[in-house]
């Protein structure tokens, strides 16, 4: 596997998304057209690149995939490397429609849980209680009032061939998922949790530590869902770490009370138990 | 054949490879015809039924980047929804062809406010009069858009209902002749990983004159004039039909003292009015405007030397500003030494019927103004 990203990019120190790009494109190889929409950081790869309007991520992959088919080059992979804004929010409609049509495309989302490109404004991917520049903490606000959208399950409910979650803290898992996606056709999506030191407000040296704590505490479980039914949990520690290992190093959660931390702990534990059950059955009931 | 069928037939004759559209009245039946053509598998054609117009525009944009020949179509509000990605298609110089089946914004009946509102998106804009002209113009649009000197997307506009759902006789050119006249699209450099120029991998961040892309884009669109005129000549040579010089089409203009400038279906109504006025000895002619962008500045400057008056009939209005064609015509003639009297007429907005006697009234007014008579500058027909 050769390095396909061009360095230095425009990423900050400790950028999780830059690492996500490096790992994903390394695994993808060079027979790729990379598709971008406005997002951060502006990764560059040694591949052709297309870009379009923010909301057009699903549509441009569709157009490329159909165009490649028309010119007899279906071997070339149409890959979108988008942010959480372009996936969860402004780009959601077009991606949902592309999933429903089961376009032969690959969507890789580096999820840094806010609009980091414009300075940490909340997105549909921002977790509950996180402080962002549009969820300041004050007498009327405890950070973001509602949880993050469950986007992997939402896309799985389109009955697409593949939806997976990954983390920059678990590179082997990430790479093996990209490798698997290369072997199948149809709509494939990988959501990579990509810590952002600037927005999450932690020491840039701790990106991997935080990414790992997220997975190990059940906040960001690693799993894959095939055809909207087959479910596999890829990382199952005997015991989950407490969510405080994930929350405490990040200043975006620093204002949280004990009750609020307990709320997150309860949600993470309950959801983990559900995932264990699904894993045991090997399927999701959607 | 109805107008929408003529558009779909042109898509088939052009052997479009990827089309995408979202149904909206009065464009809807094009999506149905294209779906039927896809289902029948008559040629190597892919039709993407999407969830909205924004997506259809982006689908053809990306497919066009791969080098495929593409088509989309919409009407009124659907075109507004496409506004954002139309800018990208224009700026990326992609030879997409789009049929715009006119529908106004104040009600569903046709006027030209939909396509007129997209004039900053960097496309070529054409307006046509009848079903045969739809078919021929869509074919010619590919020839022009894919010309290596141009590489600009082109919108072909025609009035909803009056053309989209009204049957007229249409001559369909032979496929072999179209194949010969319109070879496969070779406009775009390859974007394939094994063929692409590696210098395009990284995104350029500034460094050059930031104004330059606008200048280059503007000048490429201006070049459409020359290529459209050439294309009209070669189209006539092959298929035996022509529409003026491509930019404008003149009717009874040889000895005209005044002209009425009209676009789209009402230009046909105007022809009937010109016939009547001619019988009464009034030297009135019609200049049908086919290309609004680029605007036939040269042609109008030539006509300005010969005419005493031009009545401009705008089927759209920029509220608070006025008719776009009137403004552009006067702008073209402002610094000419010889210039005719010009009058502005607002007609056919919101689908309001424009009748033959309305055009006779317009003709009488411009004749009177040309002879120095006192006539109000702006008339709502």
Tell me what you see in this structure.
The complex is a heterodimer of chains A (286) and B (381). Chain A is α/β, with parallel strands linked by helices and 286 residues long. Chain A has helices at 16-28, 57-70, 84-89, 92-100, 151-156, 171-183, 197-200, 207-216, 244-247, 258-281, and strands at 32-36, 49-51, 77-83, 106-111, 137-138, 141-142, 162-167, 188-193, 223-226, 230-233. Chain A has a single domain (16-281), classed as Thiamin diphosphate (ThDP)-binding fold, Pyr/PP domains (Rossmann fold). In chain A, helix 1 packs across helix 6 and helix 2 crosses helix 4. The longest helix of chain A is centred in the last third of the chain and has 24 residues, at 258-281. Chain A is globular. With 381 residues, chain B is of the alpha/beta class. Chain B has two domains: 3-187 and 224-236, 3-Layer(aba) Sandwich (Rossmann fold), CATH 3.40.50; 249-380, Rossmann fold (3-Layer(aba) Sandwich), CATH 3.40.50.920. In chain B, helix 14 (356-370) links the parallel strand 12 and strand 13 (378-380). In chain B, helix 1 (3-13) runs parallel beside helix 2 (28-40), helix 7 packs across helix 10 and helix 11 (265-279) packs across helix 14. Classes of the chains: A alpha/beta (286), B alpha/beta (381). At the A-B interface, strand 1, helix 2 and helix 4 of A face strand 2, helix 3 and helix 5 of B.
* Helix/strand class of chain B: alpha/beta
Contiguous low-pLDDT stretches of chain A (5 residues minimum) are: none
Radius of gyration of chain A: 18 Å
Spell the H/E element sequence of chain B: HEHEHEHHEHEHEHHHEEHEEHEHEHE
Task: Give the topology.
The complex is a heterodimer of chains A (286) and B (381).
Chain A: H1 16-28, E1 32-36, E2 49-51, H2 57-70, E3 77-83, H3 84-89, H4 92-100, E4 106-111, E5 137-138, E6 141-142, H5 151-156, E7 162-167, H6 171-183, E8 188-193, H7 197-200, H8 207-216, E9 223-226, E10 230-233, H9 244-247, H10 258-281
Parallel strand pairs in A: 1-2, 1-3, 3-4, 4-8, 7-8
Antiparallel strand pairs in A: 5-6, 7-9, 9-10
Chain B: H1 3-13, E1 18-21, H2 28-40, E2 46-49, H3 53-65, E3 70-74, H4 76-81, H5 83-91, E4 97-102, H6 113-116, E5 124-127, H7 131-145, E6 154-159, H8 175-181, H9 212-222, H10 224-239, E7 248-251, E8 258-262, H11 265-279, E9 284-289, E10 291-293, H12 297-306, E11 309-314, H13 324-333, E12 341-346, H14 356-370, E13 378-380
Parallel strand pairs in B: 1-2, 1-3, 3-4, 4-6, 5-6, 8-9, 8-11, 11-12, 12-13
Antiparallel strand pairs in B: 5-10, 7-9
Helix pairs in contact in B: 1-2, 1-7, 3-5, 7-10, 11-14
């Amino acid at each position: 596997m050769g390095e396909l990203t061009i360095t230095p990019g425009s990423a900050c120190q400790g950028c999780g998304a830059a690492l996500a790009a490096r790992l994903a494109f390394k695994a993808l190889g060079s027979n790729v057209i990379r598709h971008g929409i406005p997002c951060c950081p502006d990764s560059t790869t040694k591949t052709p690149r297309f870009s379009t309007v923010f909301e057009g991520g699903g549509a441009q992959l569709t157009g490329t995939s159909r165009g490649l088919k028309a010119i007899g080059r279906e071997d070339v992979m149409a890959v979108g490397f988008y942010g959480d804004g372009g996936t969860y929010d402004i780009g959601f409609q077009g991606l949902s429609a592309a999933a429903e049509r089961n376009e032969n495309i690959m969507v890789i989302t580096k999820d840094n849980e806010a609009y980091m490109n414009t300075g940490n404004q909340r997105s549909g991917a921002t977790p509950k209680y996180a402080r962002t520049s549009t969820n300041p903490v004050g007498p009327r606000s405890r950070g973001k009032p509602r949880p993050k959208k469950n986007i992997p399950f939402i896309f799985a409910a389109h009955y697409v061939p593949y939806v997976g979650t990954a983390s920059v803290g678990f590179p082997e898992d990430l790479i093996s998922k990209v490798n698997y996606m290369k072997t199948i056709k149809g709509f494939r999506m990988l959501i990579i949790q990509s810590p952002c030191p600037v927005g999450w407000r932690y020491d840039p040296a701790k990106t991997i530590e935080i990414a790992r704590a997220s997975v190990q505490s059940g906040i960001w479980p690693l799993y894959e869902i095939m055809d909207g039914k087959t479910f596999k949990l890829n990382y199952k520690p005997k015991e989950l770490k407490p969510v405080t290992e994930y929350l405490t190093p990040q200043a975006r959660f620093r204002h949280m009370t004990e009750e609020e931390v307990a709320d997150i702990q309860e949600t993470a534990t309950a959801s983990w138990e559900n995932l264990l059950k699904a894993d045991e059955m090997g399927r999701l009931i959607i | 054949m109805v107008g929408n069928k003529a558009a779909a037939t042109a898509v088939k004759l052009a052997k479009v490879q990827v089309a995408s559209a979202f149904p909206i009245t009065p464009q809807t039946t094009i999506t149905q015809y294209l779906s039927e053509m896809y289902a029948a598998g008559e040629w190597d054609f892919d039709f993407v039924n999407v969830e909205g117009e924004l997506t259809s525009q982006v689908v053809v944009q990306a497919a066009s980047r791969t080098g495929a020949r593409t088509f989309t179509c919409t009407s009124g509000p659907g075109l507004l929804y496409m506004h954002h990605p139309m800018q990208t298609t224009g700026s990326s110089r992609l030879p997409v062809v789009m049929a715009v089946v006119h529908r106004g914004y104040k009600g569903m009946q046709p006027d030209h406010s939909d396509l007129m509102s997209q004039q900053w998106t960097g496309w070529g804009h054409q307006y046509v009069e009848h079903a045969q002209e739809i078919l021929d113009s869509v074919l010619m649009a590919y020839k022009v858009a894919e010309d290596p000197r141009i590489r600009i997307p082109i919108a072909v506009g025609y009035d909803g209902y009056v053309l989209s759902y009204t049957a007229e006789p249409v001559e369909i050119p032979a496929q072999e002749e179209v194949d010969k006249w319109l070879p496969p699209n070779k406009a775009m450099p390859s974007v394939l990983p094994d063929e692409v120029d590696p210098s395009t991998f990284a995104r350029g961040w500034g460094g050059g004159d930031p104004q330059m892309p606008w200048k280059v884009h503007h000048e490429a669109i201006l070049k459409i004039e020359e290529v459209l005129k050439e294309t009209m000549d070669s189209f006539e040579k092959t298929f035996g039909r022509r529409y003026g010089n491509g930019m404008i089409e003149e009717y009874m203009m040889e000895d005209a003292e005044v002209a009425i400038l009209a676009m789209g279906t009402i230009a046909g109504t105007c022809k009937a009015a010109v016939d009547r006025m001619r019988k009464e000895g009034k030297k009135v002619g019609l200049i049908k405007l086919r290309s609004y962008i680029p605007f036939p500045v040269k042609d109008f400057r030539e006509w300005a030397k010969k005419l005493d008056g031009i009545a401009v009939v705008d089927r759209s209005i920029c509220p608070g500003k006025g008719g776009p064609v009137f403004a552009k015509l006067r702008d073209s003639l402002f610094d000419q030494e010889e210039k005719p009297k010009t009058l502005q007429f607002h007609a056919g907005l919101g689908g309001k019927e424009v009748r033959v006697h309305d055009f006779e009234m317009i003709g009488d007014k411009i004749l009177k103004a040309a002879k120095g008579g006192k006539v109000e500058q702006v008339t709502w027909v």
